[in-house]
Design brief:
heterodimer; A: four-stranded antiparallel β-sheet; B: 605 residues; mainly beta; eleven-stranded antiparallel β-sheet; 9% helix
């Protein structure tokens, strides 16, 4: 059994012992032969108190009900499974960050940010943007991409996207701009969910157009071979 | 009766578990026209390989134009996506394979056009490097490469490492010594480090520090390991075998570091991974069930493997009193008869008074020699385990002041053995038996008078090779029981020696100023260590398993030890068989079928 559960052995009357049902056997036996899930919380992953069990549930349950936190609060919850012998897994995989706004409402998360973006200057002073999106653990299902740019001003206009592409599965997506006349441009690609919420991604792709051409040939000589 | 037909659409049309894919980077640039089909991770001897498919989205790129986009030798890094955030999704990439384009296969038939890119890890490059010559530490401190000398670490147990490090390729390491009289021993870690530093340019491969190698090899010695003419991989394998080490190539996570690292490991010391399977009747849960299918093959067991490591034959120095090696009927009191100068028919009596033997095979026990029983070696050899056969004398182990053997120390007695004097004239050592032959042209007067009195005797201090080798046996299971024992005999005469000055030598515990140390050797300790390491890293496998996973996972690595959770079925038998260890020998990621296929082996602890 895990060392941090040993406090429950004293008649099972500790805070953790009650949640682990050790009181049923007065701490003599591990009372959860089917295993269970325990919940911990903290401000961030360095702050989680793994000695204090917030709640416990049967291993088959998939819901923990907790009282809501204070407005503008933020908590990281970790769930860990404990097996039939009282051994607990050591992982941070099952984690959720709960963030409340000023009204105490849950701050909703949207799609993931666009993953890999590559830019290439093509003929006609145009720019080819190529990117990939990973739907891994996305909070909302992606619907489409919106592409924004600064029109050479240095400030991206997030109100008026210059293009929109529907998401059609895991593949590379491309966007070709119109002819660009200034030297430098900024682009931004956002993933947008079906309810039109986006991820507020502010990452920018800064493009410096190369307008240099090779020098003209100054000497041309011909000979008979 | 109704002719109505109802159509139903599935409510969920997406996979509950998304497919796993990897990003391909070609020479550091993200590449969208190569798709990973299969990645195989393995340690020596197979090593890692990836198979990529040429699949350009641009239809103008024809398969036959692949060479304009991909060339052999280009760097390939395959990266997998994972969620780095805790509680908040933050996708990031981690390299799971790195290598070089090693080959391009094309198939262009009427029904299929396919271009396959074969990528191999750094092992392919190291296989193309040949090991020869030696990097020598010169007195100036500069390394000197001597191409014509064999690359042998501690040949025949003699040290040949320099005491100072050389600086080469930006690395400081121990090289070979220019003066073998002032040398240190290479240990296993230093030999491996020498090969890596000498043949792998800085910045191409991350190599472990010498201290890490020493800690892993446990300071294991390396003796008489010749790697001349081998490729670098085979040379490393030969050195690693001395300490039971294996190695693999893994991608390096750093952005600025070389893309690959060589990792040395022992499977019994690697991390543990869980492969679980739920009990029948439970709702399937991919976090509780890793295994989709298992095929296994158990070898005949239990079998005890006994490793019998043998070194060279034991050699003992002793002082041997010699007997007459001639027919006594040929003895006469005619001085001139026994000299080739004064007797034309000297060959008829050439052995008389001149040939002195040990009679080790009993050849001189019967008539006409009648020199008594055959010589008894049992006290000198410390046991009676020898064959009565002809041998030959070898130089004595005792050394003179110059540090070299004194050779054959022959003494003569004119007083029937009560006093002995060094014999200063010439003699020959017989090669077909233990004996000498006096090669002077004429016997001197002192000899002749002793012969006449019947008091002449000879004794010689020399070495003799026994019939027993230095050896040690280690078994990985019970012996002298009902379990079959398979003996594996490994004979390494150049590596392990045993030479001893027996108590029957006149030079044992000598205090003569003209003599120095004796060239004794006892490699028993090294031999025991070697036998133990053979037993520990023995190749006997009790079971081989092929395991397929439910979903493709890139987190497994060769060498991972397999265990099973307490809640899981023991479908692999790792909980039941706690006397064996089970580890992953090969990890194959099949992107077409979205499965990881493991080759696992079990071995007795």
């Amino acid at each position: 059994m895990e060392a941090n559960f040993f406090a429950s052995l004293f008649s099972g009357d500790s805070a953790n012992g009650l949640k682990l049902c050790m009181g049923l056997t007065e701490g003599d036996f591990w009372a959860r032969p089917a295993g269970l899930q325990v919940l911990y919380k903290g401000q961030d992953n360095n702050d989680i108190d793994f000695d204090r069990i917030i709640a416990a549930s049967d291993s088959g349950d998939d819901v923990f009900e907790m009282s809501a936190g204070q407005p503008l609060s933020r908590w990281l919850y970790i769930i860990r499974r404990v097996n039939c012998c009282g051994w607990e897994e050591k992982t941070l995989c099952a984690a959720v960050m709960v963030e409340l706004d000023s009204l105490g409402n849950l701050v909703e998360r949207s799609c993931n940010k666009v993953f890999i973006v590559d830019a290439e200057q093509i003929t006609g002073n145009r720019i080819l943007l190529k990117w990939f999106y990973q739907p891994i653990h996305q909070a909302k299902k992606i619907s489409r991409f919106k592409i924004y740019y600064d029109n050479g001003t240095g400030v991206i206009d997030y109100q008026n996207p210059i293009s929109s592409l529907n998401y059609a599965g895991r593949k590379f997506y491309e966007f070709i701009s119109n002819e660009l006349t200034d030297d430098s441009y900024r682009f931004c690609i956002r993933a947008v969910a079906a309810d039109d919420s986006d991820n507020d991604f502010t990452g920018q792709i800064i493009i410096q157009l190369n307008r240099q051409r090779p020098d003209n040939i100054s000497i041309l000589q011909g000979s008979v071979i | 009766m109704s002719n109505r037909i109802d159509f139903f659409q599935p409510q969920h049309n997406e996979l509950s578990v998304g497919s796993c894919a990897v990003s391909v980077y070609l020479d550091g640039q993200w590449c969208d026209f190569l798709v990973a089909e299969k990645i195989t991770l393995a340690a020596n001897p197979d090593f890692g390989e990836a198979v990529l498919c040429y699949h350009p989205s641009n239809k103008d790129w024809l398969p036959e134009e692949v060479n304009s986009h991909v060339r052999c030798g280009q760097k390939i890094v395959l990266k997998s996506v994972y969620d780095t955030g805790i509680g908040v999704t933050t996708p990031d990439q981690i390299p799971i394979f790195a290598g070089f384009v090693d080959g391009i296969e094309t198939k262009d038939t009427s029904d299929e056009q396919k271009v396959t890119i074969i990528v191999k890890d750094f092992s392919a490059r190291l296989r193309r490097k040949m090991v020869y010559g030696r990097n020598i530490y010169s007195d100036s401190g500069q390394p000197v490469f001597l191409a014509g000398i064999e690359t042998v670490f501690n040949p025949e147990g003699k040290p040949n490492a320099s005491r100072q490090n050389i600086l080469q390729n930006g690395r400081s390491f121990k090289a070979f010594s220019a003066d073998e009289s002032e040398s240190d021993y290479f240990d296993c870690a230093e030999a491996i480090y020498y090969l890596l530093c000498s043949y792998v340019p800085t910045g191409e491969l991350v190599i472990p520090a010498l201290e890490q190698l020493k800690a892993l090899s446990g300071g294991r010695k390396i003796i008489d390991v010749d790697v001349t003419g081998l490729n670098l991989i085979d040379a490393l394998v030969r050195c690693c075998a001395q300490a039971g080490l294996r190695f693999k190539f893994v991608p390096s996570p750093g952005e600025t570091a070389p893309p690959q690292a060589i990792v040395f490991f022992k499977p019994e010391c690697c991390r543990e991974v869980e492969l679980n399977c739920q009990w029948p009747g439970q709702v399937i849960d991919i976090s509780k069930t890793t295994i989709a299918s298992v095929t296994g093959k158990k070898n005949f067991s239990p079998v005890t493997h006994r490793y019998i490591v043998q070194g060279d034959y034991k050699i003992y120095e002793a002082t041997f009193e010699l007997v007459k090696g001639w027919d006594s009927a040929l003895e006469e009191n005619d001085y001139d008869r026994y000299s080739p100068i004064s007797n034309e028919n000297f060959n008829e009596v050439r052995d008389v008074y001149r040939k002195w033997c040990l009679n080790e095979a009993g050849d001189y026990s019967q008539s006409p020699y009648n020199q008594g029983a055959a010589f008894d070696f049992s006290k000198i050899f410390e046991n009676g385990l020898y064959i009565r056969q002809k041998r030959r004398f070898l130089p004595a182990l005792t050394c003179g002041k110059d540090g070299t053997s004194i050779g054959y120390f022959l003494e003569v007695s004119y007083t029937g053995g009560s006093r002995w004097w060094p014999y200063m004239s010439s003699f020959k050592i017989l090669l077909d038996q233990c004996g000498i032959w006096l090669s002077v042209e004429q016997l001197d007067a002192d000899l002749w008078f002793a012969i006449l009195k019947g008091l002449l005797k000879f004794r010689i201090t020399a070495s003799v090779m026994a019939d027993e080798r230095i050896s040690f046996a280690v078994a990985d299971g019970p012996v002298n029981s009902t379990i079959d024992v398979v003996d594996e005999v490994i004979t390494l005469p150049r590596r392990f020696k045993y030479r001893k000055v027996s108590p029957y030598s006149i030079f044992v515990n000598n205090s003569d100023e003209n003599l120095s140390f004796a060239n004794q050797a006892d490699d028993t300790e090294l031999l025991v260590e070697f036998a133990q390491s053979l037993s520990d890293s023995g190749g006997f496998k009790t079971e081989q398993l092929q395991i397929k996973t439910m979903v493709l996972s890139p987190v497994f690595s060769p060498g991972d030890r397999v265990k099973t959770c307490a809640d899981s079925r023991d479908i692999l038998g790792v909980k039941y068989d706690n006397r064996s260890i089970c580890w992953l020998e090969k990890v194959e990621m099949d992107f077409a079928n979205q499965q990881t296929i493991f080759t696992a082996v079990k071995k007795r602890k």
